[in-house]
Amino acid sequence: MQAIGALWHISPAVLEAVSKAEMRAKRAQSLIDEVAKVNQARVLAAFQKEKVALRHFAPTSGYGYDDTGRDTLDALFADVLGTEDALVRPQIASGTHALGLALFGLLRPGDKMFSIAGAPYDTLEDVIGMKSNRDGSLSSWGVGYLQSALNDEAEFDLEYIRLCLEKEESIRLIFIQRSRGYAWRPSLSVQKIDEVIRYIRQIRDDVCIVVDNCYGEFTQTREPQADVLVGSLIKNPGGGLAPTGGYIAGKKACVEKIAERFTTPGIGKEVGSYYASYQPFYQGLFMAPTVVAASLKTAELFGHLYSNLGFDVLPKPGDSRYDIIQSIRFGAPDPLIAFCQGIQTASPVDSFVVPEPWDMPGYQHQVIMAAGAFTQGASIEMSADGPIRPPYTAYFQGGLTYEHGLLGALVSLQKMVDQKIVKL
Ligand SMILES: *Cc1c(COP(=O)(O)O)cnc(C)c1O
């Protein structure tokens, strides 16, 4: 720690605060390492089952008929996520795109979507057409939307869910967001999600249950047993190496429907080439358990550090973590901005850039974002962002290595001390 401090001009007080937080985080961090060991074993077993070979990394062109790299990657993800089938594609532009494909692939005019973990992620508002009947949205195609909020303890409202399922026959799709996203609530454990899935199954067996799995992969030793799981490859399962892409995994019939939305009816999964190597997708999945563990251990360190400094944090230190986000409530704009700028300073890419709050499309308030990442916007890499509005919460996540996360903690705190925002 002393050597790092000398190299980075970190004051003794900051070194001591971070060391103390690290000591307190140790126990939770060693439990995170245990989860990573199980997940690495799961992943390696899947690689061997699918007989992954060098030829699977080769680029393809044109229609991509018999693209064995593409097809084997699908099978590999299905094995690892515990599903029948998967659609894993570099051409899926983002997590929102993957979620949109799943919703449009599964829902038809007259159907209703029912979100049972409160409002879905911000970017889905326009996909669903929640606030306006936006042209092209699900709503403009005649798909209805219904929502049930979680209570303060992040428990499902089982009575209301039953009532809706019994009364509204047109409900065809249940939507569950595993991670907290930009809400101040605990994320959902796999156990809790599986429990509500069993409950729903007793009431209706004709609804498709979709889980927004973003940020959740590999935080536990298995994934939810939903009909469909959806996620982004520049988050957890890309292991920091996948340069772009998304996945949809689940029941064969569901994945096929969604694949026919991704390409066209009649073509589905059979067509689609990639004129670059598939290697980063394979290698990223192989690295993902370790990289997710590094993110979780970093989040635990930040949780202790900023909780010790008197800020409200979620999850609380020592709480189980079901996604990679650490929320920190700063209570005022200046500390939020200084924190994000500190994180940017500790980045390997664009460290010299000073992030400022800006008017991001689709947001009501200005947002500040620190993202000095190798892959643009990749939030499995160390990053922080937050809307400039009360209570001025920073959403901190990622870290390809724990050692980098530790530097992030030192540099961001030093920045806040230098600006006299935090007194030690
Ligand atoms: C990131 C995220 C999304 C959307 O993914 P993008 O890649 O940003 O479009 C959706 N849901 C959750 C919970 C997320 O964390």
TrEMBL record:
<dbReference type="Pfam" id="PF06838">
    <property type="entry name" value="Met_gamma_lyase"/>
</dbReference>
<dbReference type="InterPro" id="IPR015421">
    <property type="entry name" value="PyrdxlP-dep_Trfase_major"/>
</dbReference>
<dbReference type="InterPro" id="IPR009651">
    <property type="entry name" value="Met_g_lyase_put"/>
</dbReference>
<protein>
    <submittedName>
        <fullName>Methionine gamma-lyase family protein</fullName>
    </submittedName>
</protein>
<dbReference type="InterPro" id="IPR015424">
    <property type="entry name" value="PyrdxlP-dep_Trfase"/>
</dbReference>
